[in-house]
Every structure is written in C-alpha cells, then in structure tokens.
Amino acid sequence: MKKILITGALGQIGSELTVKLRDIYGQDNVIATDIRQTNSEAAVNGPFEILDVMDANRMVELAKEYNVDTIMHMAALLSATAETKPVFAWNLNMGGLMNALETARELNLQFFTPSSIGAFGPNTPKDNTPQDTIQRPTTMYGVNKVAGELLADYYFHRFGVDTRGVRFPGLISYVTPPGGGTTDYAVEIYYEAIKKGQYSSYINKGTYMDMMYMPDALGAIIDLMEADPSKLIHRNAFNVTAMSFDPEQLAAEIRKHIPGFELSYEVDPVRQAIADSWPNSIDASAAAEEWGFKAKYDIGSMTADMLEKLKVKL
Q1: What is the CATH number of domain 4-169+212-239?
Q2: Which of 111, 114, 167, 180 shows the smallest number of beta carbons within 10 Å?
Q3: pTM
Q4: What gap in Å lies between CA 211 and CA 290, rounded to an integer?
C-alpha cells in the first residue's frame, strides 16, 4: 500500500483508520471520502472528498484522480440500524460494495472490506466458533456480510483482485460515539459510567459476545494488508477477536476504577435477538497462523485506557 482511498472514512472504523494510515503512509497518501463532511480530524487533516458509494462513476474518477493503489471500503449501515431499514441496508451495503469491487477490478487495486461476527447465525457453533463453519444469519446486516465475503472471494478467484478482509467482533473506541451496532452497549457503558455512575444495558446479563479494542482492530487491518499474499489461504473473512465478556464482567472491570458504578437492565428485544444469534467466542487461529494476528488489549487494559481517555474527552 502506498496511496489509499477510504470510503466511509468518517464512520466508526474509518475515522480512526484514516488518521492511523496517514501517520504511517503520509498525510497526502490517504484520501478520505464520505457522504458528508465534518470538522473531524479525518476530514480536515488530509485529502477529503464527498463520495456517495452508490455513485460508481464518481468512485472510479476519484481513484484515478488520486492515482491510488488501494481501496478500503468501510461504508456500511450497521446491524441494529439495518434491521429498521432492511431494503435501504441491502441497497447501500451491497450496492456500495459492488461499486468498490468494480473500481478495484477496473484499476487493478488492492482491496479491503470488513466482515463481522454478524455473518454467523443461530446454527453456528456458539463457542470457539471455527474459521470455516455454517453461516445462516437471521439479520439483514448478517446476510449482507455473508454475501460480501462471497463477493470478495469471487472477485479474487474470477478477476484476480487482491481482496482481503476480517470478521470483526464488537469494536470499542473512545473516539467515535456509538453508531447503531448491537455491541455498542460496551461503548455506551463507559460514557455513562463517567457521566452518571450508572448504566442501563439493552443487552441482558449472561450474553457473551466477542469484542476488540479499536487500536487492535486498526492494527489487524494494516497487518493483513501488508501480509505476504502467498501465505493467505482465507483472504476475505479471517476471524479476529481479543476478548469475550457479558455486561456483568464489563461492569466489574469498571468498578475497579469507579467503585460505586451501578448496572441495571432494560433489554431491547431487537438487539438482544441479534446478540443471541451471534457466537459467544470465536477461534482466530487462522489469522494468527496466516499473517501473525495477535491482540494486545484484554478487558482489563482496555477498560483502564477507555476510562482514562474518556475522562479527558468528557
């Protein structure tokens, strides 16, 4: 990677990925795009262009104009939001992905797009979920992600596009506010712990889901994209994870720093049903073996860092 175009650059992952990549590859070599512009660091501290990912011609034009060699397609509607707008989610998530893949094919670009544990379903093995296993998701977001994994494989095998991707678990960050994901309770809880000393969780106790701190997620993207392609067997859907916990365990970690923190529950049936359809924990050994993936943060070190950073931010 030398010159990179990012779609959805102001979103949950893209906003931090853009900054990280500019630190590594140079400010002018990472072109951020999104459907809107803000005053965020990703939008103002380097090249930024307005791009609706449904506009295929505009995407190709920008890739040519900036002479990029890599496209990272991060634009998507997340799980809980997608359930409220399933037709819009299909059109945006799949239409945007097809446009990005076609841009990569036409211009011979390296390509990354993330999948998710949402690609799994209730019939998937719940514990230590294998890299290769049954995938029958019951959400529109999950259907989109399975289709996306298959499309990326297809473009690699059919057209030789250097496609790569990971299946992210829930991502936790102090930079980007929660954005409609099922796992976002694990971000909201830190904000509320600092502001109010209490939190009402929409996910029930005993609900385990895989999670990852954003610095580890960004590192995984970069490590995979820089990996030797001859060693990549799975390419587009590597399981990655750092930890698995339920709300009670997360609250216990927070109480080590905020002793009076109180956790209650007001379960959201829609998001709880989504969470129940996902694995409790997943096996990331393929990513470790094929490109050296290893997370640095666990629940304790993540919690300490989140609370420290958010206290400054808030």
Answers
A1: 3.40.50.720
A2: 180
A3: 0.93
A4: 21
